[in-house]
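Please go through this protein, sequence plus structure tokens, and consider how the sequence yields the tokens. Keep your notes short.
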Amino acid sequence: MENHVIVNSLQPEQYQVLADSYRLTQDVTEDRTYCLPFTDLLDPDKSQAYLQKVGQIYETDSSVAPVSMFAKRYAYLVIAANLYALSYFNKGYNLELENGEIESVYLGGAWLPKARLMDWTMTEPAAGRRAEWRDEVLERMFAGNLSRVWSALAKLVKVPKSILWENTAIYVYWLYEKNFGKDATLEQKQRLEEDYHYLLHDAPAHLFGEKRNPLMQFNGPKVVRSGYKKPIRVRKTCCFYYVTSDKQEDYCSSCPKRTS
């Protein structure tokens, strides 16, 4: 029995939410300097050349910091729109590595690349098969994309995969805890809660292409830090943002290097 059924597309207004807020695009960027097929990230030569360009954006001689900053952007463009579609619209795109390209232009300021898909076909769960369908969507996105890219980057630049996965995890936490939920219907809120609980507590490691569920692994307790009104989930790894900052001790609010 099939776990999903094919649907043509989202409504225009639904797609617009993903395009405006979650970095999905159907537009081809004219200047291809910072554009790249997802699959090129597995090619050492092409990936190295691309990361050197990214390093120029962050103005640092560090080999690790630009990769970590890139991983944050890449994780977001891969997961954000698809998780929103999963929980809000009960639909999912194919975010496997072979189905996307990075679309981007850098004009100074914040660098915010987008994802463009080759095949825009969407699926939704067959009757009574949402759990199985959800696993399909998640496995394509995590094991079929991010895990493969993180393994390649870790080998290429000698950056710990734990940093790359925690960069991914912090966005999942932020999306479900701080971003998603706005203007959600009762049904959507229920799916948001169920999907987030599943990702953090029950999703098996193989969906992520790893030996452990990284979202569970980095889901530490929140603590009170000076200058912040609400408790913060402190990272277990440093993302090296401070290396790319004008102030060399400008740590993130959740950085484990902070002393308070």
Observations:
- The helical segments are 12-21, 44-58, 65-89, 130-157, 161-179, 186-202, 214-217, 241-244.
- The first helix runs from residue 12 to 21.
- The chain has a mean pLDDT of 90.
- The longest strand covers residues 4-7.
